[in-house]
Amino acid sequence: MMPDNMKQNKPINKVFIATSMDGYIADRDGGIGWLDTIPEINTIDSGYDAFTSEIDAFVFGRVTFETLCSFDMDWFYTKPVFVVSNTLDEIPQKYKDKAFLIKGTVPEILAHVHQKGYYRLYIDGGGLIQNFLKEDMIDELVITTIPVLLGGGTPLFSSLPEQLNFECKRTTLYLDAIVQNHYVRKRQSL
Amino acid sequence: MMPDNMKQNKPINKVFIATSMDGYIADRDGGIGWLDTIPEINTIDSGYDAFTSEIDAFVFGRVTFETLCSFDMDWFYTKPVFVVSNTLDEIPQKYKDKAFLIKGTVPEILAHVHQKGYYRLYIDGGGLIQNFLKEDMIDELVITTIPVLLGGGTPLFSSLPEQLNFECKRTTLYLDAIVQNHYVRKRQSL
User: Fold this and answer.
1) Considering only CB atoms, which chain B residues are within 8 Å of A168?
2) What pLDDT, in 10s, does the model give residues B108-155?
3) How many domains does chain B have?
4) Among residues A102, B76, B91, B174, which one has the fewest Cβ atoms lying within 10 Å of its Cβ?
């Protein structure tokens, strides 16, 4: 058994995301209005709070960060947010004490964030998740499927150098509509 | 209430299919060996027999039919099989009393099969399912998700002229691995 304080230093990268039945995380216009196809979606406990209670920091792609900034609401996050972008010059003044710009490859991103003392990471953003998957650096995915076919948009998944296998630890059906699956990467035992 | 014998004449088009987590029904080589990633998959009752007991006929795309023909096994189906192809000239001699070639658009296909007295149809094949979905002619989808990311292959879904909404009537987790969702098309009430 690993002592609890060592467990905290074990790197783990997790995803918690909603998709359409056809695997899109945003529609053709980049919008997420289709999430409200099930109006009662906001009445369910999706497990987001429990999930984020077990992470140390958020790592967002630029588009995800800019989408968050576009919402007219108070800053939501009580843990550090790292924004990965090779094009953004700086974090807008308003968020400078809350979000931190980082650049580089997936290993460089991880080295940087680990060095700051954050090991349990919430990875968000289509491109960023795809880059992490290409390096086989995603350990868990909680995917919440909204029962709509969009027929186009921003896909969650993209090409991979090889097949990746998972277990499905839990599946939950909400409101006869929304299915949430908790996938954990199944790597070959040594 | 509709009498049972009238229900049988109510057209319904259903899909029962397995996909990877990233929505592929065949890998980059057209193969389905990844279905056996979970070796115990053949020990579960996937509900296929119950599902097919409530259909009158199968409607397959050409690729699906040719894949079936390539298996070195006895003919499996006890109900009529219609093969949709605009390129195939005829059904191979061996299957002439079991499978029937049809051509045409989705409405033409349905008119033909209904006219033969078959109303509850099992639609199979990526291209055919996509064509039916484009015309909003799929009523139910039972999707069995194998917990692998293939990173490429033949997708189940493609572009659509408009968003299609569903309910999820049932979700089942098998072997801490395979998730089966039963989606029913949710159309606007008149």
Assistant:
1) 147, 173, 176-179
2) 999 999 999 999 999 999 999 999 999 999 999 999 999 999 999 999
3) 1
4) B76
Overall average pLDDT of the B45-60 stretch: 96
In a domain, B162, yes or no: yes
Rounded-to-integer distance, Cα B97 and Cα A188, Å: 48
Task: Label the pairing between strands B24-26 and B140-146.
Answer: unpaired
Contacts of B178 (CB under 8 A, 6+ apart): A168, B38, B41, B44, B144, B145, B146, B147
Whether residues B162 and A151 touch (CB distance < 8 A) is answered with yes
User: Does residue A94 belong to the interface with chain B, where contact is any CB pair within 8 Å?
Assistant: no
pLDDT digits (tens, 9 = 90+) for A124-146: 999 999 999 999 999 999 999 99
Q: Which of A164, A171, A176 has the CB atom closest to B149's CB atom?
A: A164
The pLDDT of residue A23: 98
Q: What percent of chain B has pLDDT over 70?
A: 95
Q: What is the pLDDT of residue A137?
A: 98
User: Has the ipTM of the complex gone over 0.90?
Assistant: yes
Q: Does A148 touch chain B (CB under 8 A)?
A: yes
Q: Which two tokens stand for residue A174?
A: 């909400």
Give the CA dihedral B86, B89, B91, B94, nearest 10 degrees: -160
- Write down the residue that tokens 């049972």 correspond to: B4
Question: Does some domain include residue A84?
Answer: yes
Assess if residue A54 is contained within a domain.
Answer: yes
Cβ contacts (< 8 Å) between A171 and chain B: which residues?
171-173, 179
Residues contacting residue B112 through CB under 8 Å, at least 6 positions apart: B82, B102, B104
Q: What are the distances in angstroms from CA B51 to CA B25, B37, B56, B124?
A: 19, 24, 11, 13
Contact A168 B160 (CB under 8 A): no
Residue B130 is assigned to a structural domain of this protein: yes
The pLDDT of residue A105 is 96
We report the CATH number of the domain holding residue A100 as 3.40.430.10
Domain with B115 in it: 13-25+43-185
Write down the pTM of the prediction.
Answer: 0.93
Structure tokens at A103: 């650049």
Whether pLDDT at A67 is above 90: no
